[in-house]
Amino acid sequence: MADIHIIEITDFNTPELDIYARLSEGQLLNRANLEDGIFIAESPKVIERALDAGCRPVSILMEHKHIDGQGKDILKRCEGIPVYTAEFDVLTNLTGFKLTRGMLCAMHRPKLRSSKEICENARRIAVLERVMNPTNVGAIFRSAAALNVDAILLTKECSNPLYRRAIRVSMGTVFQIPWTNIEDDVVWEENGVDYLHKLGFKTAAMALSDNSVRIDDENVMKEERLAIILGTEGDGLLEKTIADSDYTVKIPMSHGVDSLNVAAASAVTFWQLCK
To answer: What are the strands, taking DSSP E only, across the chain?
Structure first.
């Protein structure tokens, strides 16, 4: 295959494999300089979505059989980068887990756009407040992409959507829906909701409160621009977030169940409010 640099793995300790085998998510993220960070995309479908979004590949780790199989078209799009390969059992031993569909791709983290930019033409956005579980973050992104959310904003305490597990759970939709971290000069605990108002949105705080409206409330549904705010696992939204929001919205429950997991709640909420 022209211009594809295939490298057979013979030494587990080669530094080029540190990205896949020995560096933590935090080290890959490079919080001190996010633009120099790296993320790992897993499986051909997810890698294709990342490439479609303009993400630049660093290297690939894959099973032999996928070079002329599921990974063939991806390799054509990644000419000039190293492709490390071995049999499935060797790769499992190297990475410590079974590769989903036998292919990983290390990529440069894309530069994040500003909140104002990604929200400029948005009608419905989701705001994640301190959602710390990468599985939940990934599931929320998948629901958002499927159910007409135009953009997602995250407070600084949220798990990064480009953690490997979040990417995998989202099925690569983290590359399809615009998202960014809320800017550092916004002190969310003090003026976060006011910031959303300045961006032009009415705000709907999803919370377990008796002083709330149903998710199918006509006034909420007819808002021209709406920011749906979802809170952290367990504790939910900050009291000030709820107090400052235009609406407090609650999903009606039955059988004595008081709440849904934040990822499940997001799917119900997006389906109802983003039509």
So the answer is: 5-8, 38-42, 57-63, 82-86, 103-108, 124-128, 151-154, 179-181, 202-206, 213-214, 226-230, 247-250
